[in-house]
UniProtKB/TrEMBL annotation:
Name the UniProt record assigns to this protein: Extracellular metalloproteinase
A single GO molecular function term of this UniProt record: zinc ion binding
Record keywords: Hydrolase, Metal-binding, Metalloprotease, Protease, Secreted, Zinc, Zymogen
Subcellular location: Secreted
Family membership: Belongs to the peptidase M36 family.
Provenance organism: Trametes pubescens (White-rot fungus)
Catalytic-site annotation from UniProt: 260
Annotated cofactor note: Binds 1 zinc ion per subunit.
Length: 454
């Protein structure tokens, strides 16, 4: 028989029952009434409510019988997930793949990486990103239940063989989700115009997870990221590289994936989610620089400041794809603010900004040390943690189409806002060391720092 469509048990009582039995709290997601089949085959009218426990990470969808009050069905949104990937702290496949289990941060991805809170998948698709080849239906499916994605890249074969395609889609899925989770806890949230299908009622426009096309046929020896306004998906395209035989896959070089992903962050946070405020040559160049700097940030493992080279795997050259390593040593990297006088291509301009930020990072770590848990805990006090706070905080403070000067000033202001100006002289000294001092203007160097810093 079909039970009455008018509940005998109130929603409030159903929530209380679910909270008690599941040791969590109702998360305010709109409750619904649904008929479900019970184990004995009979129908039940149920209150459907979501219950979360922020301490344990548990998140359930509870079906409470609207007549008896019995908990008749349960959906567990949190699943164990394992991925054979290149950890984000590693740059190239030669450093070694590892199996990572449950790498998601529930503070940033409360439904995990394979659910949007309503729909759960067993493929490389979830609330934050979908990775595919060709068509969005061509994702990678779990290699075994539940949510195991164990595909071992074979570097002796071309990237297009099936196992290598799966390895690429899995790695890109892991990296883009990890960048989402790191940037989220540092402020790139729903209200900050981030990329998610479901924003869980926390502001911003949803339905805009990142789409990642691996081995995209539209290009070679490159990658790109398109950032439309909040509410439209960011589009990443990863291409193959043909400097070697077999060819190499940009989706397996983490610094390239993070670089592209960071374009989405900087284009959304600058200009209030419009995606239209890094359009001038100088601003676009800084966009490239921020992307290199964030890729470098993810790969630091300790307080030792080493020169950073980007793109060395895809071209099989330890010198990488930039003109110089990023370095605190001016004999290794001589780029300065005045270098902009002769540079007109955005990646070349970006190298100047990225090297400035490399020096800012080194200065902050020199003062504050290094936090081993900065990827998952933004409350730590290491210089790497301070750096990423300022990196993200400065973006919405700067004007549309910033210059090196206005971007520098945004960093100074971000420090005043968050840290009470504690790093004022550290920042000015680092910027001035590469020509971006107090009196710098019109691409003319100046090494002056504020009088209070002398």
């Amino acid at each position: 028989s079909v039970p009455s469509t008018t509940p005998s048990i109130s929603l409030e009582d159903a929530i209380s029952t679910a909270e008690s039995q599941l040791s969590g709290k109702f998360n305010e997601h709109p409750a619904t009434l649904k008929f479900v089949a019970k184990k004995d085959g009979s129908l039940a009218l149920t209150h459907v409510v979501q219950i979360q426990n922020d301490e344990t990470g548990a998140w359930f969808e509870a079906f409470v019988d609207a007549h008896s009050g019995e908990l008749v069905q349960l959906t567990d949104f949190v699943a164990e997930a394992s991925y054979l990937v290149l950890p984000i702290t590693k740059e190239t496949p030669t450093e070694g793949f590892e199996v990572l289990t449950n790498p998601q941060n529930i503070a940033a991805s409360p439904a995990g990486w394979h659910s949007d809170g309503t729909t759960t998948t067993t493929v490389t698709a979830g609330n934050n990103v979908i990775t595919f080849k060709g068509a969005q239906t061509n994702t990678t499916t779990e290699s075994s239940p539940v949510l195991n994605f164990i595909y071992r890249q074979d570097p002796t074969q071309d990237p297009i063989v099936p196992v290598n395609v799966d390895a690429a889609r899995t790695n890109a899925f892991y990296i883009v989700n990890t960048v989402h989770d790191i940037s989220y806890i540092y402020g790139f949230t729903e209200a900050g115009f981030n990329f998610q299908n479901n924003n869980f009622g926390k502001g911003g426009a949803g339905n805009d997870r990142v789409t990642v096309s691996v081995q995209d046929a539209a290009g070679i020896n490159n990658a790109d990221f398109a950032t439309p306004p909040d509410g439209q998906s960011g589009r990443m395209r990863m291409f193959l590289w043909d400097f070697t035989n077999p060819r190499r896959d940009g989706a397996l070089e983490n610094d390239i994936v993070v670089h592209e992903n960071t374009h989405g962050i900087t284009n959304r946070l600058t200009g209030g989610g419009t995606g239209r405020c890094l359009q001038t040559t100088e601003a676009g160049g800084m966009g490239e620089g921020w992307s290199d700097a964030n890729a470098e940030w993810t790969e630091h493992k300790n307080a030792t400041i080493v020169d950073f080279v980007l793109g060395q795997y895809v071209i099989n050259d330890p010198a990488g794809i930039r003109s110089h390593p990023y370095s605190t040593d001016p004999t290794v990297n001589p780029l300065r603010y005045s270098s902009l006088q002769t540079l007109s291509e955005v990646h070349d301009i970006g190298e100047v900004w990225a090297n400035l930020l490399h020096n800012v990072y080194a200065a902050l770590v020199g003062v504050h040390g290094f936090s081993d848990t900065a990827h998952t805990d933004p409350t730590t006090t290491g210089g790497n943690t301070v750096f990423l706070h300022l990196f993200l905080d400065a973006l919405p403070l700067q004007p549309c189409n910033p210059t090196f000067l206005t971007a520098r000033d945004a960093w100074i202001q971000a420090d005043a806002n968050r840290f009470g100006g504690a790093n004022f002289c550290t920042l000015w000294t680092a910027f001035a060391s590469r020509g971006l001092g107090v009196n710098a203007a019109n691409h003319q160097d100046d090494s002056t720092v504020p009088a209070s810093c002398t």
